[in-house]
Amino acid sequence: MEKEAARPDLWDDPETAQRTMQRLADLREEVEPWLTLEQRVADALELAELGDEDLTEELVAEAEAIEQELDRLEFRVLLSGPYDRSDAILALHAGAGGIDAQDFAEMLLRMYLRWAESRGYRAEVVDRLYGEEAGIKRATLSISGPYAYGYLRSERGVHRLVRLSPFDAAHRRHTSFVLVEVWPDLPEAEAVHIDPNDLKIETFRASSAGGQHMQKNETAVRITHLPTGIVVSCQNERSQTQNRETAMRILRARLMELEEKKRREELARIKGAHVEAGWGNQIRSYVLHPYQMVKDHRTGYETGNAQAVLDGRLDEFMEAYLRATVGDKTKGGAA
Questions:
Q1: Is the pTM value of this prediction over 0.85?
Q2: Residues 6 or more apart from 37 whose CB is under 8 A from it?
Q3: pLDDT averaged over the chain?
Q4: Whole domain around residue 305: which residue ranges?
Q5: pLDDT at residue number 266
Q6: Quick one: 110 and 27 in the same domain?
Q7: Which terminal Cβ of the chain has fewer Cβ within 10 Å, N or C?
């Protein structure tokens, strides 16, 4: 890559040059911490060989620091998929459970916004359809930051909530479900090509909770990809042009995920493996009654501090999933 970057004619094609330089920067970022750690180990061994007892305390501290850095770098290897460095697009869809499911979808929206904030990521709600009485029927988030997709791909699937319903006059226990979808948000140059003739583009007025209009003009955009039937919409931006650009980003991400899914299914068919249709069973349960617990059914990781999870403390669940899927490049999407 460095030889490629040093070519005199590299910038004759600025787009290719930019991708080359970005790839080189990414590789350096991955390799240099390992080289630095290797040098620290060599230096520590050299000091140890001196046999100076006055250095014992310093060597113990350095050994502990090296071990911590090694753990961090080993975990980073789990985020080495082709799209793991990318920004992410996350969508929530209220499922079975009526108003409770819509309220649960809004709880999860808040959870992911808080998680993104805790990591210093930029998160933006690009589309949201409110429920008639409470909560949201669906929402789409754009989350930008290093390895956003790598972490969030662990969240795709069906999430289940068990609690005493605040919308039931008898205050009975209800179970509700929300589907979470996650796609890598790739630059246009890396995404799938879309034929403009395959698109049906509609505009409408953006609305807020209660049906009030945020804009008098038709700034919101809905795009239908006719060959696949995929529909995306965006109403958060102030202008129709901005909403259209965001909707196209989401559509490209969804089409790329569709292509990846087809590729994985074909590979599984060739291998003779069974591919389960649909989204499968819930990946995680959030129980608020009769006890408090959040449990990931794929990894077995659980915690009794349900409120902390709903406040955005998701890293332990994400890390457990990544560690559980080491070596399996078909789980959790483009791993």
A1: no
A2: 66, 69, 70, 73
A3: 85
A4: 87-185+284-324
A5: 65
A6: no
A7: N
